[in-house]
Structure formats: C-alpha cells, structure tokens
Amino acid sequence: MTEQLAVAVLGAGGRMGAEAVKAVDAAEDLKLVAALGRGDSLDSLAGTGAQVVVDLTTPDSTEANVRFAVEHGMHAVVGTTGWDEQKRRNLDALLEAHPGTGVLIAPNFALGSVLASAFAAKAARYFESVEIIELHHPDKVDAPSGTAVRTAQLVAASREEAGVSASPDATTKSLDGARGADVEGVRVHSVRLRGLVAHQEVLLGGPGEQLTIRHDSFDRASFMPGVLLGVRAVASHPGLTYGLDGYLDLND
Ligand SMILES: NC(=O)C1=CN([C@@H]2O[C@H](COP(=O)(O)OP(=O)(O)OC[C@H]3O[C@@H](n4cnc5c(N)ncnc54)[C@H](OP(=O)(O)O)[C@@H]3O)[C@@H](O)[C@H]2O)C=CC1
Ligand SMILES: O=C(O)C1=N[C@H](C(=O)O)C[C@H](O)C1
C-alpha cells in the first residue's frame, strides 16, 4: 500500500469538523494525526507529522491557523469563511515566501454548489437582472455566506466581461436592509431558519422569463467529497487557490 497522507483537522468539535474527522478516518489513503478544538495549542500540531491541515473553525481564528500551517511547512485546506480580499492578499504574500506549499480556500466544498455557482456565472451575462438568496441554519455566525459572496464575485466578473449593465432597480425609498447586501453590484439576501442546512438560489430575470439556479445541502455529508478532494490535491497545487473550481475542469 502507498504511504498514507497525514491530516490534521482544526475545529474538530464543530459541525463541519466532526464530519471531516469521520471522513478522513474512513479514507484508507489518509491518516488522521490530530483533531484540535478551540482550547488546543497550535504548537501541538508541530510534532504530529501532519502534511495537510484542514481548517473548519471560525472567521476570527482561521487566518492565524493557516499562517501557522504554512510557516511550519504544512499545506492547508480551508472551509472557514471570512477570507476577504485583504486576507487573501496577505496569504499570497506569505505563500510566496514558502514556495511549494499549497492552500485551498473553498467557500463551498459541495460539488453541486460549485457547479451551481459556475452555471450562474455562465448564465448571468444573458439576463438583465440577477439577485442571490442564500438560506442557512440559524447558528451560522456570518452573513452573507461565503458561498454567496463567491457566487456574486463570479457573476459580477462574468457580467463585466460581457459589458452587461447593472441589474435595473428603481428603488428610491426602502427600509435599511430591505434590498439585501450589495456584493460587487449583486444584491444578496440572507435567510436564517431552523431546519435548514445550506441552500442558495440565484435568480436570473429577463423580459417575460426567469431562470432559477438552486442548490441544497441537506446534510454536511455533502461537503465531504470536496474536503477529501482538496486534501488529496492541495500538495500538487502550490500557492493559493480560491474556490474548489480551481481543482476541477469546468471550462467546457
Ligand atoms: N466550505 C464549506 O463547504 C463549508 C464551510 N463552512 C464554514 O466552516 C466554518 C465552521 O462551520 P461550522 O462547523 O458550522 O461551525 P461550528 O461553530 O460548529 O464549528 C467551529 C468549531 O471551531 C472551533 N474553534 C474555534 N476557534 C478555534 C481555534 N482557534 N482552533 C480550533 N478550533 C476552533 C469551535 O470551538 P467552540 O465551539 O469552542 O467555539 C467549534 O467547535 C464556518 O466558517 C462555516 O461558514 C461550513 C460548512 C461548509
Ligand atoms: O456555515 C455554514 O453552514 C456554511 N458555510 C459556508 C458559507 O458560508 O458559504 C458554506 C455552506 O454554505 C455552509
């Protein structure tokens, strides 16, 4: 048998972390060497032989976790939200000083979600209007979701490239928040509702028609094939990759 890849999971006691621990444990080619929670020192990672660190923690701790991993020669697969442009730029600079080390920041690990965002970006140039609704469980701490932000970025880039104007909107009077958040010119609406896991709709409107691109994660098991794909591929993608689509061939 070929040697197993040594994997550490940060945020191991959380909803996603616990699922990732099970998925890594069950994979024959991977070996779980550490499962750390909030109280555990990152220093304890150093002696574990971890080659890949999976970060599923919180927006306020993920940056320091990833920095530690990179500075200690470990690749990182990151599902945690909060990686704005400035943080990604800082990480890029750090990775330049650590050539050969790879970091994947994946706003969503569910393959269906990655495809839905790619389809939405392709479609967005053909419609006058586009808005995004993301729907999540009420224990989520951030809004809008990282997936919605990433989708809005892809949609905005596609529309800009095609020279499409901003979505029409005659609103001059509204209550604060009524029109959602503006992410690169795309309106994003966040719903938090008990019973939900992670869901998103991209609404595309043209004269007399609407296309809705919807993805539903009913269970966190939906994220695990993407986590495992990231863990297995990150070492062969040095530098920073933003979005699991960077590891897939979605261009045709
Ligand atoms: N990319 C993707 O596909 C997905 C991404 N996510 C994202 O992943 C993140 C985690 O989500 P979720 O599992 O639902 O959240 P949880 O709150 O359930 O889990 C986060 C866990 O991280 C722990 N933690 C906090 N700080 C640290 C630290 N410094 N070191 C180690 N562990 C720490 C928390 O401990 P404590 O409870 O003690 O605070 C908690 O157990 C969120 O940003 C979420 O948006 C979620 C689903 C899918
Ligand atoms: O917190 C969650 O649950 C999720 N977070 C990610 C996000 O913010 O996009 C991914 C998925 O939507 C679930």
UniProtKB/TrEMBL annotation:
One Gene Ontology cellular component: cytosol
UniProt enzyme class: oxidoreductase
Principal location class: cytoplasm
Active site: 136 (proton donor/acceptor), 140 (proton donor)
Pfam family, one: DapB_N
Compartment annotation: Cytoplasm
Biological processes per GO annotation: diaminopimelate biosynthetic process; lysine biosynthetic process via diaminopimelate
Domain Dihydrodipicolinate reductase C-terminal: 113-246
Residues involved in (S)-2,3,4,5-tetrahydrodipicolinate binding: 137, 146-147
InterPro entries linked: DapB_C, DapB_N, DapB_N_CS, DHDPR_bac, NAD(P)-bd_dom_sf
Molecular function per GO: 4-hydroxy-tetrahydrodipicolinate reductase; NAD binding; NADP binding; oxidoreductase activity, acting on CH or CH2 groups, NAD or NADP as acceptor
Catalysed reaction equations from the record: (S)-2,3,4,5-tetrahydrodipicolinate + NADP(+) + H2O = (2S,4S)-4-hydroxy-2,3,4,5-tetrahydrodipicolinate + NADPH + H(+); (S)-2,3,4,5-tetrahydrodipicolinate + NAD(+) + H2O = (2S,4S)-4-hydroxy-2,3,4,5-tetrahydrodipicolinate + NADH + H(+)
Positions bound to NAD(+): 11-16, 79-81, 106-109
Keywords from the named record: Amino-acid biosynthesis, Cytoplasm, Diaminopimelate biosynthesis, Lysine biosynthesis, NAD, NADP, Oxidoreductase
Function: Catalyzes the conversion of 4-hydroxy-tetrahydrodipicolinate (HTPA) to tetrahydrodipicolinate.
Record's subunit section: Homotetramer.
Full protein name: 4-hydroxy-tetrahydrodipicolinate reductase
Gene this chain is encoded by: dapB
